[in-house]
């Protein structure tokens, strides 16, 4: 079937627009279109190509999703070899390199160098013919690499077609494929959640991702590239300098490292080295040094090559960020949310510019995966200000049968039971109300607006009260004296009196609020209300077994376990008793009114209510057995629209969902009746 000129033009226009926006987003980091508009363009092109496969071209951005798996990689011979660089490890070594360059050139003046970070990634050569990406190959041994074209096509910042009108007949663009630090962290989080092996470092992750036989897997990995040079070039004159070549690559739409500099002499090179080393940890990508190149191509030709490396370039390697040491002990720390984190105590070792004596082991699963034991020889890694971590165990140096580490079953801080759910990596202390390691966060939550709503008790004041030793748990708040509060920073007698009054007011509450304030894991407002409506008072809930908890609609096995465990900790019960002794109380809850016309109905509140607060309206509706949702969907039964109702009202109208006003809401709930 003949495709109309209009469809061909539309497909070409869509490809051009999408490639343009890809370049602005992934290369320039300066998008000028909203994500939703981009998605519309992409979907339209996908639909056109699916309906008319003849429209699919080699530079279509839809190819970035990956193709069917290969059986193996094809070998590619590099027309221009991809040679390695010699290394130096200190400034004296670089001075020697600079002297050799000037001696060979008989240069009496300083040499101009082009400098750029040495990325810790994987070298790549991408071949373009008439501006179209036709092949991508790894370095391999420098002369023969592997064809990874389909994988490189999936990398968003790599242009499938070069921009501009001055594109040569053939050009090989050399660069480094890498994985940004943020992408690496996300990938390892995904691997952990899926129960898969995590990657040791970003370079390992980038190399493994680029060499996938299934390019659809590569497409899901957060890879990026910076270009650093030219290989074969046909159909145009070579630029005069390396810097000119980099500007030309930028003009063609290729990503070039923004840290690249032109340095007129050796002193400027030293300043660049020092500056970049200071910035190293803040960069969005891993580097292990700096590459210096004689900037002028004619001078590069005169210098030539020695063995497998050019005489006109050198790699300055920063001090290693990995070192070998011994595990002296493994201790467990308890964080502010109750998470237990094992920490290795190490034989002190100098790495990454500092002496390291501790390294995080993250969690029990990570210890098992790496099989770290006290007495092991290990490789540790430090990157900038990130907490050092153990990369791997040197098993060949393990002597005898070292005992396997076991996580404690009781919190090392407060003695409460440690719980860890199936499928979760983190173990947690269950003594949330009492545990000193968690006290600040537990008290802040207890006082928050949706919990006990203690007006004037902000986060900084809670921290000051704990640091001064005036409170150890939430119950201590209700035993504070005016003289104690008035002596605190920024706390005059008037504000101290106001806080005491707010604490007095908070003593009268509702059981759902109190249960939510306790901070039981995964017990939010809705679950707290369901618990209150089912058990009606606290003693029955405390005595409940997991089987009875599972009878509640909002409570599954995991939540039931958390609730049951929480109320089995003596320290938690002690704090609850102390709260009740201080006068905290609530009226008995009434069972949910299943006879109410609103029972089981899903209601959404939107806009500003004039006569009652949104929170009060929600509580009244819940007491009538209704469910109050935050968004409108086909399952919504009613929308209550107050003043200045917005998108929720519009959506309700589009779905033909009944909309009522505040007067109707008042009639439903008996407000002012």
Write the layout of secondary structure elements.
Elements: H1 5-27, H2 35-51, E1 75-77, E2 87-88, H3 91-105, E3 113-119, E4 122-129, E5 132-138, E6 144-146, H4 149-153, E7 170-178, H5 181-193, H6 202-210, H7 215-219, E8 224-234, H8 242-251, E9 261-263, H9 266-279, E10 287-294, H10 297-303, E11 305-306, E12 309-310, E13 313-317, E14 322-334, E15 339-351, E16 354-360, H11 364-370, E17 377-381, E18 389-393, E19 418-419, E20 427-429, H12 439-447, H13 459-467, H14 482-486, H15 493-506, H16 511-517, H17 525-535, H18 538-543, H19 546-549, H20 557-566, H21 570-581, E21 602-606, H22 614-623, E22 627-629, E23 638-641, H23 647-654, E24 659-660, H24 662-669
Parallel strand pairs: 2-13, 21-22, 21-23, 23-24
Antiparallel strand pairs: 1-6, 3-9, 3-10, 4-5, 4-7, 7-8, 10-13, 11-12, 14-15, 14-17, 15-16, 15-20, 17-18, 19-20
Describe what you observe in this structure.
Its cofactor is Mg(2+); Mn(2+). Helix content is 35%, strand content 20%. With 673 residues, the protein is α+β, with helices and mostly antiparallel strands. It has five domains: 5-65, Helix Hairpins (Orthogonal Bundle), CATH 1.10.287; 87-317, DNA ligase/mRNA capping enzyme (D-amino Acid Aminotransferase, Chain A, domain 1), CATH 3.30.470; 322-397, OB fold (Dihydrolipoamide Acetyltransferase, E2P) (Beta Barrel), CATH 2.40.50.140; 436-581, DNA polymerase, domain 1; 602-669, BRCT domain (Rossmann fold), CATH 3.40.50. The strands form six sheets. Strands 14, 15, 16, 17, 18, 19 and 20 form a seven-stranded antiparallel beta sheet that branches. Helix 12 (439-447) packs across helix 13 (459-467) and helix 16 crosses helix 17. It is globular and about 90 Å long. The model has no long low-confidence stretch (mean pLDDT 86).
């Amino acid at each position: 079937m003949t495709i109309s000129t209009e469809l061909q033009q539309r497909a070409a226009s869509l490809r051009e627009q999408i490639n343009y926006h890809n370049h602005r987003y992934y290369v320039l980091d300066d998008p000028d279109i909203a994500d939703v508009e981009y998605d519309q363009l992409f979907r339209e092109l996908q639909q056109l190509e699916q309906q008319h496969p003849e429209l699919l071209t080699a530079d279509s951005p839809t190819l970035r999703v990956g193709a069917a798996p290969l059986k193996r990689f094809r070998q590619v011979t590099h027309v221009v070899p991809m040679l390695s660089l010699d290394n130096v490890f200190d400034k004296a070594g670089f001075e020697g390199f600079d002297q050799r360059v000037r001696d060979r050139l008989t240069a009496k003046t300083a040499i101009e160098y082009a400098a750029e970070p040495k990325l810790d990634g994987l070298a790549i050569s991408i071949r373009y013919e008439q501006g179209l990406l036709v092949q991508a190959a790894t370095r391999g041994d420098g002369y023969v690499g592997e064809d990874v074209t389909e994988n490189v096509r999936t990398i968003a910042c790599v242009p499938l077609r070069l921009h501009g009108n001055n594109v040569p007949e053939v050009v090989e663009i050399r660069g480094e494929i890498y994985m940004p630090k943020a992408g690496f962290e996300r990938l390892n989080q995904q691997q952990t959640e899926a129960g898969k092996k995590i990657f040791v470092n970003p370079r390992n992750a980038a190399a493994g991702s680029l060499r996938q036989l299934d390019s659809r897997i590569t497409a899901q990995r957060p890879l990026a590239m910076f270009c650093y040079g030219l290989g074969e070039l046909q159909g145009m004159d070579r630029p005069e300098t390396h810097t000119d070549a980099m500007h030309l690559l930028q003009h063609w739409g290729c990503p070039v490292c923004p840290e690249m500099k032109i340095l007129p002499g050796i002193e400027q090179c030293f300043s660049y080295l020092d500056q970049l080393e200071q910035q190293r940890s803040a960069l969005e990508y891993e580097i292990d040094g700096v590459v210096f190149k004689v900037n002028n191509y004619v001078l590069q030709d005169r210098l030539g090559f020695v063995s497998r490396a050019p005489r006109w370039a050198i790699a300055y390697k920063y001090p290693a960020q990995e070192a070998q040491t011994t595990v002296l002990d493994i201790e467990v720390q308890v964080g502010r949310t109750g998470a237990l984190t094992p920490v290795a105590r190490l034989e002190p070792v100098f790495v990454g510019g500092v002496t390291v004596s501790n390294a995080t082991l993250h969690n029990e699963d990570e210890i098992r995966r790496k099989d770290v034991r006290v007495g092991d020889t290990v490789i540790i890694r430090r990157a900038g200000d990130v907490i050092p971590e153990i990369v791997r165990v040197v098993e060949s140096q393990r002597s005898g049968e070292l005992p396997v580490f076991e996580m404690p079953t009781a919190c090392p801080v407060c003695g409460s039971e440690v719980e860890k759910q199936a499928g979760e990596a983190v173990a947690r202390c269950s003594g949330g109300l009492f545990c000193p390691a968690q006290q600040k966060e537990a008290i802040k939550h207890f006082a928050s607006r949706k919990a006990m709503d203690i007006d004037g008790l902000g986060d900084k004041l809670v921290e000051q009260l704990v640091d001064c030793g005036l409170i150890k748990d939430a119950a201590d708040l209700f035993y504070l004296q005016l003289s104690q509060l008035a002596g605190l920073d920024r706390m005059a007698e008037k504000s101290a009196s106001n806080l005491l009054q707010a604490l007095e007011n908070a003593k009268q509450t509702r059981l759902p609020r109190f249960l939510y304030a306790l901070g039981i894991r995964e017990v939010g407002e809705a679950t707290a209300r369901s618990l209150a409506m089912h058990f009606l008072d606290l003693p029955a809930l405390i005595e409940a077994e997991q089987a009875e908890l599972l009878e509640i609609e909002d409570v599954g096995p995991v939540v039931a376990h958390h609730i049951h465990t929480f109320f089995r900790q003596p320290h938690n019960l002690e704090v609850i008793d102390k709260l009740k002794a201080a006068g905290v109380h609530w009226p008995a809850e009434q069972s949910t009114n299943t006879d109410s016309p609103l029972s089981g109905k899903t209601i959404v509140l939107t806009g500003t209510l004039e006569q009652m607060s949104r929170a009060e309206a929600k509580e009244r509706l819940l007491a009538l057995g209704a469910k109050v949702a935050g968004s409108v969907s086909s399952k919504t039964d009613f929308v209550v629209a107050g003043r200045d109702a917005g998108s929720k009202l519009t959506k309700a109208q589009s779905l033909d969902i009944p909309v009522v006003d505040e007067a109707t809401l008042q009639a439903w709930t008996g407000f002012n009746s």
